[in-house]
């Protein structure tokens, strides 16, 4: 079965109750048992991972979403969490213990880094940050107590690619787990588990949900032992995503393929055009042939997100603000993956510590939505003209 079919067919019963196309929303805390024997046996034989036992452990909507994502990821099982960030933090908590060492890409999403530095450190887990371009040389950083390698490709803000099979393969040789934040590509365009990664993480908030109206996280595990470890941790923390958000995320997921492909087509046209414009020093987008990560992206990925960075060729903060404020179709805001275009601005130094990022005074991040690309180009063109004008 192809992914486009999976996106429609997975996670659905043959006929839903009352004949609805979509599974209705099951709102629940208490789940009633038909008799006391069933109640007493509700956790027997691993049934806690199957049966619906209590609202905080997820209802039918979480299970249907998890089943669909597991099918798309080619994984054993998927666990739903409250946000993309909690999918990451739950993974780190589940697989690292006091005295352990974890390796995290230096290009990682900022709040992941903050969690490692400010929370994991207090619980006795040491994180070190590696150059995202390290490849199989990551071996040199392994210690006797290294438990997990964390990847993200392309990385947040700098959009640096990673050689995922080389890094995951080196980790596996030493029985070290690997986990990847794959939110940018989604499993439609890159399947971490098929490239040797053990744990695939998705901020479902972005392209899965697709409409900027909820936060949710998903973690897909390569085998049942990993699934149980994560599911037990998530349950112990009382981590849960509400049924309404699970319902909406699954509804968004059904149309992921058409949305992201259309948005990526526009993103390629706009990023190519932007790279030639005065005032733009560099566009950070692996699908562009001149991007340093292009060869890896071509080798391993089957498509791209519609999110990229633009390094501006100015240190005039006021001029940049004038430019951004002049945009009308690109609204100012964080997050991404919705149907609408967005712009965000980051002052340096970026979280990524290494040069050359340190020297770029501003990084603009654009998310391309489903608007007509010619309208978006006209909007950006008008904005860029403001960049060149004096106040
Ligand atoms: C790459 C990446 N991973 C994870 C997250 C976290 O997702 P959430 O906002 O659902 O916590 C984000 C959010 O911006 C992100 O950009």
Describe the structure.
This protein has helices at residues 3-9, 36-40, 60-73, 84-95, 110-118, 164-173, 186-189, 224-237, 243-253, 256-275, 294-300, 317-326, 373-388, and strands spanning 77-81, 101-105, 126-130, 146-152, 177-181, 199-203, 217-221, 280-284, 307-312, 331-332, 342-347, 362-367. The chain is an alpha/beta fold. It has two domains: 3-253, 3-Layer(aba) Sandwich (Aspartate Aminotransferase, domain 2), CATH 3.40.640; 257-388, Aspartate Aminotransferase, domain 1 (Alpha-Beta Complex), CATH 3.90.1150. The strands form two sheets. A seven-stranded mixed sheet has the order 1-7-6-5-4-2-3, with helices on both faces. The mean pLDDT is 94. The structure holds pyridoxal-5'-phosphate. Pyridoxal-5'-phosphate binds at residues 83-85, 109, 156, 181, 183, 203, 205, 215, 217, 335.
Question: Secondary-structure map with pairings?
Answer:
Blueprint: H1 3-9, H2 36-40, H3 60-73, E1 77-81, H4 84-95, E2 101-105, H5 110-118, E3 126-130, E4 146-152, H6 164-173, E5 177-181, H7 186-189, E6 199-203, E7 217-221, H8 224-237, H9 243-253, H10 256-275, E8 280-284, H11 294-300, E9 307-312, H12 317-326, E10 331-332, E11 342-347, E12 362-367, H13 373-388
Parallel strand pairs: 2-3, 2-4, 4-5, 5-6, 10-11
Antiparallel strand pairs: 1-7, 6-7, 8-9, 9-12, 11-12
What is the succession of H and E elements?
A: HHHEHEHEEHEHEEHHHEHEHEEEH
CATH superfamily name of the largest domain? Type I PLP-dependent aspartate aminotransferase-like (Major domain)
| Proportion in helices | 25-40%
Hetero groups in this structure are:
pyridoxal-5'-phosphate
Strand arrangement in the largest pleated sheet: 1-7-6-5-4-2-3
